[in-house]
Design goal:
- The protein is an all-alpha fold.
- It has 3 domains: 2-61; 62-104; 108-181, no CATH class.
- Helix content is 77%, strand content 0%.
- It has helices spanning 2-27, 34-55, 65-72, 78-104, 112-120, 125-147, 156-181.
- Helix 6 (125-147) crosses helix 7 (156-181).
- The longest helix has 27 residues, at 78-104.
Protein backbone atom coordinates (compact mmCIF):
# COMPACT_ATOMS: atom_id res chain seq x y z
CA UNK A 1 0.00 0.00 0.00
CA UNK A 2 2.94 2.31 0.59
CA UNK A 3 3.77 2.18 -3.12
CA UNK A 4 0.47 3.89 -3.87
CA UNK A 5 1.39 6.75 -1.59
CA UNK A 6 5.00 7.03 -2.77
CA UNK A 7 3.94 8.19 -6.22
CA UNK A 8 1.45 10.70 -4.80
CA UNK A 9 3.98 11.95 -2.27
CA UNK A 10 6.58 12.47 -4.99
CA UNK A 11 4.12 14.41 -7.18
CA UNK A 12 2.97 16.53 -4.24
CA UNK A 13 6.56 17.39 -3.28
CA UNK A 14 7.31 18.46 -6.85
CA UNK A 15 4.09 20.48 -6.98
CA UNK A 16 4.84 22.24 -3.69
CA UNK A 17 8.38 23.06 -4.81
CA UNK A 18 6.98 24.41 -8.09
CA UNK A 19 4.51 26.62 -6.20
CA UNK A 20 7.32 27.89 -3.94
CA UNK A 21 9.46 28.80 -6.95
CA UNK A 22 6.44 30.37 -8.64
CA UNK A 23 5.87 32.51 -5.54
CA UNK A 24 9.48 33.72 -5.63
CA UNK A 25 9.22 34.62 -9.32
CA UNK A 26 5.92 36.47 -8.84
CA UNK A 27 7.08 38.37 -5.75
CA UNK A 28 10.10 39.72 -7.62
CA UNK A 29 8.61 39.87 -11.10
CA UNK A 30 10.68 41.34 -13.90
CA UNK A 31 9.44 41.54 -17.51
CA UNK A 32 12.47 39.49 -18.49
CA UNK A 33 11.28 36.59 -16.30
CA UNK A 34 7.98 36.18 -18.19
CA UNK A 35 9.22 33.05 -19.98
CA UNK A 36 10.27 31.43 -16.69
CA UNK A 37 6.90 32.37 -15.15
CA UNK A 38 5.04 30.76 -18.07
CA UNK A 39 7.18 27.65 -17.74
CA UNK A 40 6.44 27.39 -13.98
CA UNK A 41 2.71 27.86 -14.65
CA UNK A 42 2.85 25.01 -17.18
CA UNK A 43 4.72 22.86 -14.64
CA UNK A 44 2.02 23.68 -12.10
CA UNK A 45 -0.71 22.56 -14.53
CA UNK A 46 1.12 19.33 -15.38
CA UNK A 47 1.71 18.77 -11.65
CA UNK A 48 -2.03 19.03 -11.00
CA UNK A 49 -2.65 16.56 -13.84
CA UNK A 50 -0.13 14.12 -12.33
CA UNK A 51 -1.80 14.41 -8.93
CA UNK A 52 -5.16 13.79 -10.58
CA UNK A 53 -3.79 10.62 -12.21
CA UNK A 54 -2.75 9.36 -8.77
CA UNK A 55 -6.38 9.62 -7.70
CA UNK A 56 -7.25 6.47 -9.67
CA UNK A 57 -4.81 4.44 -7.57
CA UNK A 58 -6.17 5.80 -4.31
CA UNK A 59 -9.93 5.69 -4.88
CA UNK A 60 -10.46 3.18 -2.04
CA UNK A 61 -8.71 5.24 0.65
CA UNK A 62 -10.93 6.93 3.24
CA UNK A 63 -9.64 9.69 5.48
CA UNK A 64 -11.71 10.56 8.56
CA UNK A 65 -13.08 14.11 8.50
CA UNK A 66 -11.53 14.68 11.93
CA UNK A 67 -8.08 14.51 10.31
CA UNK A 68 -8.99 17.45 8.08
CA UNK A 69 -10.33 19.31 11.13
CA UNK A 70 -6.97 18.76 12.85
CA UNK A 71 -5.19 20.18 9.80
CA UNK A 72 -7.58 23.17 9.65
CA UNK A 73 -6.83 23.86 13.32
CA UNK A 74 -3.10 23.80 12.58
CA UNK A 75 -2.57 20.57 14.49
CA UNK A 76 -0.49 17.61 13.40
CA UNK A 77 -2.75 14.99 11.76
CA UNK A 78 -0.70 12.24 13.40
CA UNK A 79 -2.10 13.46 16.72
CA UNK A 80 -5.47 12.16 15.54
CA UNK A 81 -4.10 8.62 15.42
CA UNK A 82 -2.46 9.06 18.81
CA UNK A 83 -5.66 10.37 20.39
CA UNK A 84 -7.72 7.56 18.80
CA UNK A 85 -5.36 5.01 20.31
CA UNK A 86 -5.54 6.75 23.70
CA UNK A 87 -9.37 6.72 23.57
CA UNK A 88 -9.34 3.03 22.61
CA UNK A 89 -6.96 2.26 25.46
CA UNK A 90 -9.14 4.17 27.93
CA UNK A 91 -12.25 2.33 26.70
CA UNK A 92 -10.38 -0.97 26.94
CA UNK A 93 -9.43 -0.21 30.55
CA UNK A 94 -13.04 0.72 31.29
CA UNK A 95 -14.32 -2.58 29.89
CA UNK A 96 -11.56 -4.50 31.67
CA UNK A 97 -12.63 -2.84 34.91
CA UNK A 98 -16.22 -3.92 34.31
CA UNK A 99 -15.09 -7.48 33.60
CA UNK A 100 -12.90 -7.54 36.71
CA UNK A 101 -15.77 -6.19 38.80
CA UNK A 102 -18.15 -8.83 37.51
CA UNK A 103 -15.74 -11.74 37.88
CA UNK A 104 -14.71 -10.78 41.41
CA UNK A 105 -18.29 -10.72 42.66
CA UNK A 106 -19.33 -14.00 44.24
CA UNK A 107 -22.71 -15.26 43.14
CA UNK A 108 -22.45 -18.59 44.90
CA UNK A 109 -24.74 -17.31 47.68
CA UNK A 110 -27.66 -16.98 45.28
CA UNK A 111 -28.69 -20.64 45.32
CA UNK A 112 -32.36 -20.09 46.23
CA UNK A 113 -33.41 -19.75 42.62
CA UNK A 114 -31.45 -22.86 41.68
CA UNK A 115 -33.00 -24.89 44.46
CA UNK A 116 -36.54 -23.69 43.74
CA UNK A 117 -36.17 -24.35 40.03
CA UNK A 118 -34.69 -27.81 40.56
CA UNK A 119 -37.39 -28.75 43.08
CA UNK A 120 -40.06 -27.36 40.76
CA UNK A 121 -38.78 -29.59 37.98
CA UNK A 122 -38.56 -32.59 40.30
CA UNK A 123 -34.76 -32.89 40.35
CA UNK A 124 -32.63 -33.58 43.39
CA UNK A 125 -30.73 -30.40 44.30
CA UNK A 126 -27.73 -32.29 45.66
CA UNK A 127 -26.97 -33.60 42.15
CA UNK A 128 -26.33 -30.04 41.03
CA UNK A 129 -24.48 -28.61 44.05
CA UNK A 130 -21.03 -29.81 43.09
CA UNK A 131 -21.40 -29.01 39.40
CA UNK A 132 -22.88 -25.58 40.11
CA UNK A 133 -19.88 -24.43 42.14
CA UNK A 134 -17.42 -25.52 39.43
CA UNK A 135 -19.30 -24.46 36.31
CA UNK A 136 -20.80 -21.26 37.67
CA UNK A 137 -17.49 -19.41 37.70
CA UNK A 138 -16.50 -20.65 34.21
CA UNK A 139 -19.85 -19.86 32.64
CA UNK A 140 -20.04 -16.48 34.38
CA UNK A 141 -16.72 -15.32 32.93
CA UNK A 142 -17.67 -16.37 29.41
CA UNK A 143 -21.10 -14.84 29.79
CA UNK A 144 -19.73 -11.52 31.05
CA UNK A 145 -17.24 -11.34 28.19
CA UNK A 146 -20.05 -11.86 25.69
CA UNK A 147 -22.43 -9.34 27.20
CA UNK A 148 -20.10 -6.67 28.57
CA UNK A 149 -20.07 -4.71 25.32
CA UNK A 150 -23.88 -4.41 25.52
CA UNK A 151 -23.97 -3.65 29.25
CA UNK A 152 -25.51 -0.25 28.58
CA UNK A 153 -28.47 -1.97 26.90
CA UNK A 154 -29.30 -4.71 29.41
CA UNK A 155 -29.55 -4.06 33.15
CA UNK A 156 -27.31 -6.15 35.43
CA UNK A 157 -30.26 -7.96 37.03
CA UNK A 158 -31.30 -9.05 33.55
CA UNK A 159 -27.76 -10.30 32.96
CA UNK A 160 -27.95 -12.35 36.14
CA UNK A 161 -31.36 -13.72 35.26
CA UNK A 162 -30.16 -14.77 31.80
CA UNK A 163 -26.98 -16.24 33.28
CA UNK A 164 -28.94 -18.28 35.78
CA UNK A 165 -31.21 -19.59 33.04
CA UNK A 166 -28.24 -20.47 30.82
CA UNK A 167 -26.46 -22.25 33.62
CA UNK A 168 -29.62 -24.09 34.61
CA UNK A 169 -30.13 -25.35 31.07
CA UNK A 170 -26.48 -26.34 30.91
CA UNK A 171 -26.66 -28.30 34.17
CA UNK A 172 -29.93 -29.92 33.20
CA UNK A 173 -28.53 -31.00 29.84
CA UNK A 174 -25.41 -32.39 31.51
CA UNK A 175 -27.50 -34.25 34.07
CA UNK A 176 -29.77 -35.67 31.39
CA UNK A 177 -26.68 -36.85 29.48
CA UNK A 178 -25.39 -38.57 32.63
CA UNK A 179 -28.82 -40.10 33.33
CA UNK A 180 -29.07 -41.37 29.74
CA UNK A 181 -25.62 -42.97 29.96
CA UNK A 182 -26.52 -44.74 33.20
Amino acid sequence: MAEKFDSLEEHLEKFIENIRQLGIIVSDFQPSSQAVLNQKLNFMISGLQDIDKCQKQLHDINVPLEVFEYIDQGRNPQLYTKECLERALARNEQVKGKIDTMTVRDYSEDTDLWEKTCKGLGFDVSVFQNRISIEKSRAWKVFVLNLISNSHVIHLSTHLFILQRCLLFFFLSQTIKVMVRN
